[in-house]
Structures are given as C-alpha cells and as structure tokens.
Specification:
The complex is a heterodimer. Chain A is mainly alpha-helical. Chain A contains 5 helices and no strands. Helix content of chain A is 74%, strand content 0%. Chain A starts with a helix and ends in a 6-residue tail after the last helix. The N terminus and C terminus of chain B are likely disordered. Classes of the chains: A mainly alpha, B mainly alpha.
Amino acid sequence: MNEDDLARLVEFKLLLSRITEDHLFEELRRAANAQGRRLPNVTRTALRTGASAAVRALSPAEILTFAQGATWEESLKAAVDAGAWRRLLDVAIRLAFPSGPA
Amino acid sequence: MGNSNTSRYADGKELYHQDAAVNQWLRSLLLQGVAALEAQFIRAARRARTGPWAPTRRAVGRAPAPASVSPRRAAGEVARLLMDPEAGARIRRLARKHRLDEGDVAGLWAATVTASAAATLPLALPEAEPA
C-alpha cells in the first residue's frame, strides 16, 4: 500500500469516527434534554474514545462495507442497509460507557 | 453513587472515568436512540460528497485485519511513526485537519499499517446487553 492510499484510508476512518462521535453526542444531548438532565463533562471525550476504538477495530471487510458505493452517500446508505452502521454504533456506545471494569 | 469504574485500554490510556450509574444512564439513552441515529446518518450522507477521504478498494484490501499487540509495541510504533519524516508530516496534517491529538492519529495510522488495532481496545469488550 503506498502512502497516498494509506493516508486516504486513515482519513476515511477518521471521518467515520468523527461522524459516529458527532451523531452519538447529538442524540445523547437530545435525550438528556428530554429528561431535563445535563450531560457529564467527560461525555464528549468518552464518545470520541469509544468511536475511535470501534472504528479501529473494524476489519478490512467491514471497512469496505462503508466504502463500497460510487459516492459517499451510496456507501453510507449501503452500510446502514447491511447493518454495519448499527454494529459500529453499538460497539462505540458500549466502549464509551462500559457497564463495568474490563 | 454506584461503583467507580477505572478500566483502561491496553495501551494504558484510561478508558473512562465516570461513575458506573452515570455510564449506565448514558448507555441506555443511546441504545434506545440507535434506530433514530441510523436515519440521521443517511440524512448526513445526502449532504456529503465523495471526497479525497474515500479509500480505494485496493488500499482497504491490503490493510491488515485488526490483531492484538502488546501496549509496548503499539507505543513503539506510534513513536516511530511520529519520528518518520514523511509519515509524521502526514499524521500531523491529518491531526490538524481533524483537530485531533497527533498521538491518536498516529495510533490509527499504526493500526491501519501494522494490524495493531486491538492495542487501543480494552482488554475485553463490555458484555452485550439488550438494547
């Protein structure tokens, strides 16, 4: 793999991680507001860590699921349809807010 | 308020630093909203365009699968990458562009090149639970 290919692949993962983090944070803020509660200060950091770790753990085949369309939109739609997005969110959530010591 | 959690990633970074009850509350809020998030994801995709970030199939196909490496080796890979003139410069550019820590980007770079992804994961994933 040459350096340009590698840089694009890393940037793609960074973008996926950022989208995951942003969406989870917005959803959390909305849900907390609905309950009249404030989010803890470390929430954003925890989500960033969880999203990043979840993306890092994706196998090449799973990464391809997010990059198989001719356009970004097509690719992400396909990832939703394949359940890949749901699995990524699930792992990111559980890593960001674990239920107990690992 | 609940038990304190002090779990760490395999590379020694603290995974989270919150009360277990707070973690449970946040986790349950998100797991309830996952379906709505999928719809948001598609809406965001409509606004986006294919960009230079889109990886080639060849690049993805050649990337190693995630594997476990020792925290020491992972830290060594990150340090080596940051010292490398070309890779280090690219990593710093990406970190600036995405407003991320250079070490985190280098970790992702290392994970992509050398299959050290698991070095950034907890030793064991939290157990699955019903959404």
